[in-house]
Amino acid sequence: MAVYNPNGGGNVHIDKVLTQISIGWPNNGFVGDALFPAVGVQKQSDKYYVFGREHWLPEQGDERAPGTEAHEIPGRQVSLNPYYAKEHALQIAVTDEERENADSPLSPDRDGTELVTEKIMLGRELIMRDLAVTAANYHGDNSLALSGTDCWSSDQYASTESDPIADIRLGKTTVHSKIFMEPNLGVIPYQVMSALEDHPKFLDRIRYSERAIFTPELLGALTQIRRWVVPGAGYNAAANYGVAESLQYIWSDDVILAWVPDRPGLRIPAYGYEFRWGQQFVDRWREEKRASDVLRVRRRYDVKMTGVDDNDLQVAGFLIKNTLT
Q1: Which of 5, 69, 157, 244 has the greatest number of beta carbons closer than 10 A?
Q2: Can you give the residue ranges of every domain in the chain?
């Protein structure tokens, strides 16, 4: 009988079929990777470059007389920020009895893989959410906390002070003033999007539109932000199993505007990245004493805000907090 070796030997192996299931698992409304696209890295821990902005400083002495040397300027300032791709892993046992008694369309191996993957990805989404909605992570100019009649919720509609379009415009111009590019991505949670469907500021603008239905595409046309994503996924915030459920939206009522490049590159500002070491995969081993196979999903990553200033504060994004409360 083979014995499981926790160091990776023995009968432990990567299951390619189940890995494909895990990789192909639908995101179920998760949107964190829109703000933090994955970047593959070669080492579990390393550093990434943060380039200075010397190219925005004009030089006064670029005229050169014949036979003289050109004015020499200092090189680009480059600093290093670290990442560490921690491993996030969960496992589940699939018993022989489950396989023998499962009727179609149940598939214990597939269902177990999907359950563990969903929990891994839920944890990843919450990490990304917490990073994105924390005002202390942003430059002081790059966040706005609403309250009272400034909120966008339906009970504030009678107030002329509630102006989501003006708030979004403020976010756009603030980001542009820091990186000279407007945000091209907006995250607007489901319940905020639902509230805006009846907001008079938007109704006035779409009244004569050919598409009078309020959609992310129409919101993009009104705000000139190319892409809006609407997270609607939820989770159980209860402290543990066996207690009363506490169902909540993952993304509540905070709106985020961000500059996210089409693809990663050097000297290109970006709101943030997920530094992923290796691929997400499923490994499996046999435990005869339990008459079970054990399936484990593993993903190794670190999530970082990279569009930051000299104080490591976000300048490639803008946070609008408490839009409904």
Answers
A1: 157
A2: 13-51+78-321
